[in-house]
Specification:
This protein has one helix and five strands, in the order E-E-E-E-E-H. By secondary structure, it is of the alpha+beta class. A hairpin with a 4-residue loop joins strand 4 and strand 5. The longest helix has 19 residues. The radius of gyration is 23 Å and the shape is elongated. The chain starts with 8 loop residues before the first strand and ends with a helix.
């Protein structure tokens, strides 16, 4: 079973541009093609006006071929250049610092050794 499904929007990296469409890679196994008809609802004179090689864009999955690792993709009707960055919560240091870890570590090790003996 593939991690890619129809209608999902995922990130892809542009690897090639031809007159008929854009080639992208999603991971080490899956690649895809955005046909020129799936770039815009308007006339597309030059694909280079939309993407450049190396761009990381959002793409909508239209079809999945799991055997070949190919996806048929679209950037029509989605905000393909809006890559939202994942914000990580800032780690707040506690007044105890590593003292809590130093206290609990021997207990955790002892419990793990007991569980391993069972």
């Amino acid at each position: 079973m593939s991690k890619y499904r129809r209608n999902n929007i995922v990130k892809a990296t542009v690897t090639g541009i031809e007159n008929y469409g854009v080639f992208v890679t999603l991971d080490e196994y899956f690649t895809g093609l955005i046909h020129i008809s799936e770039i815009s609802n308007d006339y597309v004179k030059d694909i280079n006006d939309f993407v450049k090689i190396g761009d990381v864009i959002c793409v909508k999955i239209l079809d999945v071929d799991n055997e070949l690792g190919h996806l048929r993709l679209s950037i029509k009707d989605i905000d393909y250049k809006n890559i939202k960055k994942i914000r990580r919560k800032k780690i707040q240091e506690t007044p105890l610092g590593f003292k809590t870890l130093a206290y609990h570590l021997p207990i955790w090790i002892e419990n793990s050794l007991k569980n391993m003996k069972k």
